User: Fold this.
Amino acid sequence: MIILNKEIINIQKEQDVLFFRNRVSQYADKVKMGLVNKTKLLTAGSELVRNMLIYANGGKVYCEIVSMSALQTGIRLTFTDKGPGIADLNNAMTDGFTTGKSLGLGLPGAKRLVNIFDIKSEPGKGTTVTITKWKNG
Ligand SMILES: Nc1ncnc2c1ncn2[C@@H]1O[C@H](COP(=O)(O)OP(=O)(O)OP(=O)(O)O)[C@@H](O)[C@H]1O
Ligand SMILES: [Mg+2]
Assistant:
């Protein structure tokens, strides 16, 4: 995997979500990602930044353009926080599981919208979620 471009976006307040969405949108346009895939990426990314804000008081997003080959270019977003972590990842990835009073669809929904989804979490240390969306497919 070749990393063509990298930027770190700090997420601390609601306004940062808007900035994040605009940047991801610009990156998607830069790689000529289609509107459907771009919308899926933005939807998944928004769920993950929202989780970071709500459960971890914010964190960082690494925003990268990645390339596997001339045909396989996409965007990889890594959301990392130093919040409380997630005790049971299997629960967290189940539709309808929430420790809040929400729908519990953020993580499993985000996973369905992207090509590669990876989540790591250590209770007491934090959570890192990485998603990759290819421009085609
Ligand atoms: N970054 C995070 N740090 C700590 N806990 C998290 C984090 N992200 C998710 N969680 C935990 O995983 C659970 C499931 O997250 P998910 O986004 O799927 O649902 P939700 O946020 O509860 O509801 P929804 O996203 O549908 O509004 C959350 O209720 C929370 O307990
Ligand atoms: Mg959520």
Notes: The chain has a mean pLDDT of 96. The chain has four helices and five strands. The pocket of magnesium ion (ligand 2) is lined by residues 47, 50-51, 106 (CB under 6 Å).
